[in-house]
Amino acid sequence: MILKHFTELKEYLSQSKNIVIIGHRNPDGDAIGSTLGLKHYLDKKGHTVQVVMPNEYPDFLHWIPGSETVYRFDRQNKQSVRSLKNSEIVFLLDFNALHRVGSDMQNTLEKYENNFALIDHHQQPDDFEYMYSDTTMSSTCQMVYNFIEMMGDVDLIDKNIATALYTGIMTDTGSFRFRSTTSTTHRIIADLIDKGAENDKIHSNVQDANTYNRLLLLGQALSNMKMLTEYKTAFITLSEAEKKQFNYEKGDTEGVVNYALSLKGIVFAAIFIEDKEQGIIKMSLRSKGKFSVNQFARNHFNGGGHDNAAGGKSDESMEDTITTFKALLPKYKTALETSYEA
Question: What global pTM score does this model have?
Answer without folding.
Answer: 0.86
